[in-house]
Structure formats: C-alpha cells, structure tokens
Amino acid sequence: MRWWELTWPEFERADKTVALLPTGIVEAHGPHLPLGTDALMAVYLAEEAAKRTGALLLPPVWYGNTYVLDRFPGTISISSETLYRLYRDIFREVARNGVKRLVVVNGHGGNVDALNMAAKEVARETDLTIVVVNWWIDLAKEARRRVLETPEGHAAEDETSEVMAAYPHLVKEVPRDADEWVEAKYRVYGREVYEISYRKAVQGYPSRASAEKGRAILEAAVEELVALVEDLKKGVLPVRRK
C-alpha cells in the first residue's frame, strides 16, 4: 500500500505493523546510468516487497549526501546534518502514526551515517523498531558471488546490470572507455584524490554488465527483503543469539 495514496480513514484502518522507506540520492553514475540510480533501485526493491507483503510503502527520500561526486553536473548533495535531521523527523512521524517496525531500504553509501544516527536516536525515544538495509551490501550476497565477474563498485558491472534489469529504458549505451578502477592504500580525503578516483563518475567495469546478471541479483534481493518483512510481521527480528 502506498502511504501517500491512502485517505486518512483508509490509513487509520491500514495494517501498520511494517512500513518500508526507500532512500537514495541524485548523483552522477557514469555516462550511462541515470542520476537517480541509487534512489530508483531502492524504490524498485521496496515497491516489490510492499506488493508481495501488503506492507506500507512510504514516499522515497530522493536526496542524500555525497562528498566525492558533487563536482559532476546534475548531482544534488545536501549536508549530513540536514540529512540526519530529515531522517530523524521522518522516523518520528512514522512512530507517531502508529507504525511498529520500519524497514529503511537504503541505496546510497553516503546516507549510512545519517541513517544510523537518526535511527539510534528515535529508537531510544519511541517504541519504533528500525531496520536499516543497505541493500547493495546486505542483500543477494550469494547471487552476486555467482554472477559477477568483476568487483562491485559505482556504476560498475553490478549496478549497471541492476538498472538494466529494472529500468532498461533509462540505460544509455556503455562507452568503450567507461571502465575505471582506482585503489587507495588508505582512506584518503581531498579534491585531488577525488579527481583521480572518479574521472567518469565510475568505479568498476560496466562493460561487463548484462540485464541477465541484474535480474539474478534483483530476484534474490527481493526474496530476501520479502522474507525480512514477513518475519517482522510475525514479531521475529533479524537478530540471532549464538
């Protein structure tokens, strides 16, 4: 159920056990993928899981934070402080509206710190349980190992394959010289290293991408996300005592 399409009486009657929130960013993804890639993929997964489980689907948060790719045209980066406050206020409102468990389907690495900070704060002050799923890390691990030939990255084989499978009409032809891979020995911050690392807004090998690989990854990711939502509906948290 799409939260924003319900009337308030419909929302009042709706099952509010589990809700899904997709988060991403508007950011350069090579010369071949759309600026909204991270948000689009989070939306795709959250929508599929909501359809299969009947969970509430919140409007996506399209904006995020990047400290590397904001020099490319079209990127929109908001500050980490603003992002944290936005997430915090959304979580508070989700709790106030009676949702018991919230699954954040996050599609962008630059959002992680703000999401974690906001989740910790709201979890302390409300009864809301928040599960943050950084989907490209947490889901479809076995499928990725099985189908990918090159390292995962940014607008790379993995991400390009996924967009090919979910939104083929938004993928441009991958240029022959699009592949780009740079490794750093330490964590290095600064304009100089950013310019070296992302000359084309790519980190990886998009030339090896295919829709078939993307479908394999997405099918596994949706199945795992659906299983998580179903468990949460039963009161089973993704925590195991060893």
DSSP strand tally: 4
- SSE series: HEHEHEHEHHHHH
* Global structural class: alpha/beta
CATH H-level superfamily title: Creatininase
Chain-averaged pLDDT: 96
The CA-CA distance between the termini, in Å, is 36 Å
CATH class: Alpha Beta
Strand order of the largest sheet: 2-1-3-4
Portion in beta strands = 5-15%
Coarse morphology: globular
Overall tally of domains:
1
What are the low-pLDDT stretches, counting only 5+ consecutive residues below 50? none
Helix content: 40-55%
Radius of gyration: 18 Å
CATH fold call: Rossmann fold
Number of helices: 9
Main pleated sheet: 4 strands, parallel
Named CATH architecture: 3-Layer(aba) Sandwich
Key traits:
242 residues; globular; alpha/beta; single chain; 9 helices; Rossmann fold; four-stranded parallel beta sheet
Any overview of this molecule?
One of its GO terms (molecular function) is hydrolase activity, acting on carbon-nitrogen (but not peptide) bonds, in linear amides. Pfam families: Creatininase (PF02633). Keywords: Hydrolase, Metal-binding, Zinc. It is a single chain. The protein is globular. It has 242 residues and is of the alpha/beta class. Helix 2 crosses helix 7 and helix 2 packs across helix 9. The protein has one domain (7-230): Creatininase (Rossmann fold, 3-Layer(aba) Sandwich). Strand 1, helix 2 and strand 2 form a beta-alpha-beta unit. The protein has a four-stranded parallel sheet, with helices on both faces. 43% of the residues lie in helices and 8% in strands. It has helices at residues 8-13, 37-53, 80-96, 112-125, 135-138, 141-147, 157-166, 191-197, 211-233, and strands spanning 18-23, 56-57, 101-106, 129-134.
